[in-house]
Amino acid sequence: MSTERSLVLVKPDGFQRGLTGEVLRRIEAKGYTLAALAVVTPTREQLAAHYAEHEGKPFYEPLVDFMSSGPVAAVVIEGQDCIRGFRSLAGATNPTEAAPGSIRGDLGRDWGQAVQQNIVHGSDSPESAVREIGIWFPDL
Ligand code: IDP
Questions:
Q1: Is residue 59 within 6 Å of ligand 1 at its C-beta?
Q2: pLDDT value for 130
Q3: Could you list the residue range(s) of the whole structural domain that residue 33 is in?
Q4: Which three-class secondary structure string do you get for the chain?
Q5: Considering its fold, how many domains does the chain have in total?
Q6: 40 falls within a domain
Q7: This prediction's pTM
Q8: Has 94 been labeled as part of a binding site?
Q9: Which of 27, 29, 81, 82 has the fewest C-beta atoms lying within 10 Å of its C-beta?
Q10: Residue 92 CB–ligand 1 contact under 6 Å
Q11: Ligand 1 geometric centre to CA of 92 (Å)
């Protein structure tokens, strides 16, 4: 167990629905702290870097369209094992399958769109976290 940082995004669906405060509340209630916070409308270049591992997949273009459709809240959180911990708070990728109690399970909707509009992103490994924090907060 170690203190680490993770990159969290409140995606355009969550931001537009006014769920940013609820996501931040759950992060803070869990005991993680906020190291950086910004509201930005992502550029396609930023998203290409962020989602490089998914390039070529069927949901990639719809995902970039969706993520560039409006503002997101970009957040760096800090805390013990917060990378795995936030993934657990977020729940499974598909909101229909996400466990009740998780952000996606409680608040996410699944209308069978080309892309899952699942409210939040969280880094999936220490390497991803460092890479993603560099994309969203180059000065941090
Ligand atoms: P994660 O966000 O739970 O880590 P990833 O597999 O990294 O999931 O996928 C990134 C994002 O791409 C997901 O959060 C979701 O918005 C979208 N996505 C992933 N897989 C699919 C799919 O099979 N269909 C539609 N959208 C998907």
A1: yes
A2: 98
A3: 3-85+117-136
A4: CCEEEEEEEECHHHHHCCCHHHHHHHHHHHCCEEEEEEEECCCHHHHHHHCHHHCCCCCHHHHHHHHCCCCEEEEEEEEECHHHHHHHHHCCCCCCCCCCCCHHHHHCCCCCCCCCCCCEEECCCHHHHHHHHHHHCCCC
A5: 1
A6: yes
A7: 0.96
A8: no
A9: 29
A10: no
A11: 9
